[in-house]
Amino acid sequence: MAGIVIVGAQWGDEGKGKVVDLLAEQADLVIRFQGGNNAGHTIVRDGETFKFHLIPSGILHAGKICAIGNGVVVDPEILIGEIEGLRRRGIDMSGLRVSANAHLIMPYHVKLDTEGELRLGKLEIGTTRRGIGPCYADKAARLGIRVQDLLDEKILRTKIMAAMEPKQQMLRPYVKDPDLDLHTMTETYLSYGHRLESHIADTAKLCWETLDGGGTTLFEGAQATMLDLDHGTYPFVTSSNPVAGAACVGAGVGPHDIDEVWGVAKAYATRVGAGPFPTELEDDLGDLIRERGGERGTTTGRDRRTGWIDLVALRYAVRLNTMDALAITKLDVLSGIDPLRVCVRYRHPEGAVFDEFPYHQTILHTATAEYEELPGFEGEIGDCRRESDLPREARGMLEAIADGAGAPVRLVGVGPGRDQVIWMGEEAEHRLRAA
Ligand code: GDP
Ligand code: IMO
Ligand code: MG
Predict the structure, then answer these.
(1) Distance CA 218, CA 155 (A)
(2) Distance of CA 144 from the midpoint of ligand 1 (Å)
(3) Within 13 A of 214's CA, how many CA atoms are on the CB side?
(4) Is residue 96 part of a domain?
(5) In this structure, is residue 93 part of a structural domain?
């Protein structure tokens, strides 16, 4: 039996989708445990690109059971669109399950997200405006509507009415919006229920059956540690807990069901939306990395902010998630950049030095990053498949990351393609033996 959690170790978009797709080959079940369609997970397979917002990244393995756990917030319209889009591309969707306990994103959540951001003005968070925050807020306020409610007209209508009542003032600008009409909304969501019915399931039980039967379950995280509601750069965070601990709550298993935690990080760093980012590069080099790395949001199409890898934040993420392994992606993007830098500490303007991630947000906003410089490497590394194929300097960068973060690098990405990876150390031997 094995429960393996895969989480983002930075600010999102680290390449979790690709890593989940790879590890899913040997898994019996893949389950998303938090977030919603704010996520955008990309998989490039045989030159074909797939972008998933809600559907777990294991779905390309025909017939694999892929579940959307109770901790996810589901926009049913988006989910149905995703299912149909994949079906049209010939993907077998028979393995898809959706937790009956997952909460639904309603049209008013999307409006409230936009409205909230507009009200904040300059203080805006830069959300994806997909209604994620308001949906989780309703869940906590016990005004949420769950997937199972789609199957009962009376309950659905009553719950929508109760949920909308306290929001009337903020929803005033949308008073004439037909999407917010109680009758229309109830009818529309009932029709979503009909279309999703065959996928609705008790997904916690699926996890238990898989684990108890000796199978492997992959818990797929969305967003990332630095966007965690409790542990990230609050308030510039998402409204769920993307850390590994949340896999238990969001899928319905206990801590003893988790055997391994993998963190995914880029060999540099990116962030979408507002909030502190001590290693940000607001110069030509930042533009070059953005260009080379294709750093444009999968979900919103916004340019991602770019910077050097932050080992202070990564070490924090390793500890918070008790990461057993790191997958370092996009090493190829750094080719030709000399010297390379890794952030090893922060310095406050008044001189204090922080080797550990500071708990006080103000420090993070004002601190500057201090770096260790490493020699760069040249040339195309996209065809490297073994650690020994990599230039010495590229290996030096990986060693610096592992040392600084305090976790071994077990997988390296050298291009977007599914096969563009290097398994490292013991993992490589294990994979070669298995092949
Ligand atoms: P996720 O949200 O963590 O799943 O990541 P995204 O899919 O939003 O963003 C990662 C992007 O990097 C995608 O476009 C991937 O195809 C791409 N990618 C993943 N790994 C690598 C890699 O090793 N090298 C390069 N060049 N691109 C990669
Ligand atoms: P994946 O799973 C990167 C960011 C938004 C914003 C903040 C809050 O693809 O890594 P929200 O809409 O969640 O209320 O926005 O979080 N954000 C992400 N950034 N990758 C993501 O997902 C993200 N999901 C949310 O840009 O700053
Ligand atoms: Mg993404």
Answers:
(1) 34
(2) 33
(3) 0
(4) no
(5) no
* Residue ending a domain, choose from 165, 198, 231: 198
Task: Say if 95 falls within a structural domain.
Answer: no
272 and 393 co-located in one domain: yes
- Domain region containing 209: 2-88+202-434
Residues 378, 327 share a domain: yes
User: Which CATH number does the domain housing residue 107 bear?
Assistant: 1.10.300.10
Q: For 121-267, where are the alpha helices, taking DSSP H only? A: 132-140, 153-164, 182-196, 203-212, 246-251
267 in a structural domain: yes
How many domains, in total, are found in the chain? 2
Distances, alpha carbon 337 to alpha carbons 151, 331, 414, in Å: 56, 11, 15
Of all ligands present, the nearest one to the C-alpha of 272 is: 2
Q: Where are the beta strands (DSSP E) in 215-367?
A: 216-220, 260-266, 268-271, 305-310, 325-329, 340-347, 353-354
How distant, in Å, are the alpha carbons of 210, 391, 406, 431 from that of 416? 30, 19, 26, 20
Distance, CA 429 to ligand 3 centroid (Å)? 30
Average pLDDT value for the chain: 96
For residues 325 and 391, membership in a common domain is answered with: yes
Task: Classify strands 103-104 and 2-8 as parallel, antiparallel or unpaired.
Answer: unpaired
Please indicate whether residue 13 is annotated as part of the active site. Answer: yes
pLDDT band at 301 (very low <50, low <70, confident <90, very high): confident
Going by the DSSP 8-state scheme, the letter that residue 300 receives in this structure is T
Task: Give the whole-angstrom CA distance, residue 413 versus residue 265.
Answer: 10
pLDDT tens for 30-81 read 999 999 999 999 999 999 999 999 999 999 999 899 999 999 999 999 999 9
Q: Is 383 found in the same domain as 411?
A: yes
Token digits of residue 313? 């934040």
Q: Which ligand is nearest to the CA of 51?
A: 1
- Domain boundary pick from 198, 223, 258: 198
Convert the pLDDT of each residue in 258-277 to its tens digit.
Answer: 999 999 999 999 999 999 99
Using the predicted structure, report yes or no on whether residue 1 has a pLDDT greater than 60.
no
Ligand 1 probe mutation, 42, 52, 303, most atoms within 8 A of CB: 42
Q: What is the pLDDT of residue 94?
A: 96
CA-CA distance, 69 to 30, in Å (whole number)?
Answer: 10
Distance 266 CA to ligand 1 centre (A): 9
